[in-house]
Specification:
single chain, alpha+beta, 8-stranded mixed sheet, 7-stranded mixed sheet, 29% helix, globular
């Protein structure tokens, strides 16, 4: 049985203000893609989990907000959806069992072993407060007042004394000693599951090797020099999700230079004293041409001071972090290239991914004049009613493959496949300087349509069970083209009136023929001969002239 992910909502008005303290020898790692915490053995994670969403589901199922181990001696006694915390009137309530209704029973599923609050099994929603203890099988979690780490890095720069700056000598013996001390970190990174775990291992190592580091953070430089927080941690409190800094201060650093506030500040400002800041360190992450980011550390609340030995250890860690950021960027580009292959041929996908490397805005939405080709299988509904699933699959797979081949062959983009229809777009290629951009998109689309119909007839004629005619329609007009996805996902496509017009004109095409809008016909050029199809009422476009491409 599978349930869809539990959609927890972060409610700024809920004010739950609690966190769950974990047992000794266990920590949690934040999985940002799934918006959940994963409980695991070991110290490379966070010792407490903020409850900042309602519902907050605890259990072994992978769609919980706090995921417990599903194997091992401590898995016994914990149900998949063991219990959940919800907000009511700004207060947290603990309730046993699943939050979602189970389809098979039409009700919520209780846990097998029950949920304890302060040692007593609960039978109804119970309010919680600081100091309470939640029991799930062998686990005991303490309810604490929420401690959300908040860091403003600008406080380090307020009144610096004994500041040093400069560049590091890679041949310095202190550098070599620092790198020799990295074996444990490399082992953790090799065993880590995912980029977040690897970056967290680097920051945890910084705090283990550099005792002054009360706060450690990786700041990444993105497109246009924009600086963002990749990850930040604070000693004893775990990850910091509210890390503030001034980009201008970082940009004032000399390229490749570090900033070391070595001695403890004697006359601290009020904010420095309040935060316990008296020493700090900032140094760039080495990149090929410029800094890929920065490693930031301050001695928040520990009173110790950074020294030159710390600087060389931090330099070694900065090198590892730079490699990690580079690997993440390559992984992201690989994902982009793989996703682009759904829309472009392999060579074009690679070239566009390269453009994205230099300019991440290369696939930004833009208005374009383009020709849309819509093709579908005439009479496919009859096969759908009579044929087997295997026959349907073979017919559609052959149609999709041929459509993509013909659209790519003539410089088009595969926009999407919908049922037994294929949509291709010509004239909306993202290359800034491209021979494809200078070609006639209407002629490209007509050639692709002709090839698709001809090759479909040739390849499917021997297969009588799906020797069905194709129809195609062409429409010309303004579209919006670009990436309609999100970070890490590319869904390149188009929207606009020409899309709907092509889908409707296709219905007017002759069997194994191509119908065109008046604008598409005018854009074709002398290579093609068209025959008038009269006028037709097309939804959303009124009465329009329709043309048919002459037989070829």
């Amino acid at each position: 049985m599978r349930l869809r992910p539990i959609r927890a909502r972060a409610d700024p008005n809920a004010q739950l203000n609690i966190q769950l303290a974990l047992p000794a020898d266990y920590t949690c790692l934040w999985k940002s893609g799934a918006s959940q915490w994963v409980l695991r053995e070991g110290l490379a994670g966070q010792k407490s989990v903020p409850v900042n969403a309602s519902p907050f589901v605890l259990g072994r199922a992978l769609n919980c907000q706090l995921v417990f181990p599903s194997a091992g001696p401590r898995a016994k006694g914990v149900s998949r959806w063991h219990c959940h915390i919800v907000e009511q009137g700004g207060n947290p309530l603990l309730r046993d069992g699943s939050f979602q209704v189970i389809p098979e029973t039409g009700s919520r599923k209780p846990s097998a072993a029950g949920t304890l609050l302060n040692g007593s099994r609960i039978s109804k929603p119970e309010p919680m407060t600081e100091g309470d203890e939640i029991g799930l099988g062998p686990w005991r979690l303490k309810v604490e007042k929420l401690k959300e780490p908040s860091v403003n890095a600008d406080e380090l720069f307020e009144k610096p004394r004994a500041r040093k700056s400069g560049t590091l000598d890679a041949g310095d013996p202190r550098f070599l000693r620092a790198f020799a001390d990295m074996e444990g970190l490399f082992r953790q990174m090799i065993a880590a599951q995912g980029a977040d775990e690897r970056m967290l291992a680097i920051l945890n190592c910084a705090q283990q090797k550099i005792r002054s580091a009360g706060v450690a953070a990786i700041l990444a430089v993105g497109s246009g020099g924009k600086i963002s927080v990749r990850m930040a941690v604070q000693r004893f409190l775990g990850q910091v999700f509210d890390f503030q800094f001034s980009s201008g201060l970082l940009r004032k650093l000399e390229p490749g230079s570090y900033y070391l506030l070595e001695a403890v500040i004697a006359d601290r400002t009020r904010s420095q004293a309040a935060k316990g800041i008296s020493s700090g360190l900032v140094l760039p992450l080495a990149g090929l041409d410029s800094a890929a980011g920065y490693l930031y550390m301050d001695n928040r609340d520990n009173g110790m001071s950074f020294g030159m030995e710390d600087l060389f250890m931090a330099g070694a860690l900065a090198g590892v972090a730079a490699l990690q950021l580079a690997a993440e960027k390559q992984d992201a580009l690989a994902v982009i290239e793989e996703n682009l292959k759904e829309h472009f041929d392999s060579d074009a996908a690679w070239k566009i991914a390269e453009e994205c490397r230099a300019d991440p805005a290369a696939l930004a939405l833009s208005k374009r004049q383009a020709v849309v080709l819509c093709a579908d299988i005439q009479g496919f509904g009859d096969l759908a009613n009579k044929g087997s699933p295997a026959e349907l699959g073979r017919a559609l797979n052959e149609f999709y493959r041929l459509s993509a081949e013909c659209i790519h062959r003539h410089g088009g983009i595969v926009d999407r496949f919908v049922g037994d229809s294929a949509l291709g777009v010509f004239g909306a290629h993202p290359f800034k300087e491209s021979t494809l951009e200078r070609a006639n998109p209407a002629a490209q689309a007509a050639r692709a349509g002709r090839d698709l119909i001809s090759e479909w007839r040739m390849r499917t004629a021997p297969k009588e069970w799906y020797a069905m005619a194709l129809r195609a329609g062409l429409a010309y007009g303004e579209v919006t083209a670009g990436n309609f996805g999100f970070k890490g996902r590319i869904e390149y496509g188009v929207i606009g009136g020409a899309v709907g017009e092509a889908m409707r004109i296709e219905k007017l095409a002759r069997p194994n023929g191509i119908a065109l809008s008046d604008a598409a016909k005018e854009a074709l050029g002398p290579e093609f001969r068209c025959e008038s199809g009269g006028e037709a009422e097309i939804k959303g476009h009124g009465l329009v002239k329709v043309w048919h491409l002459a037989p070829w």
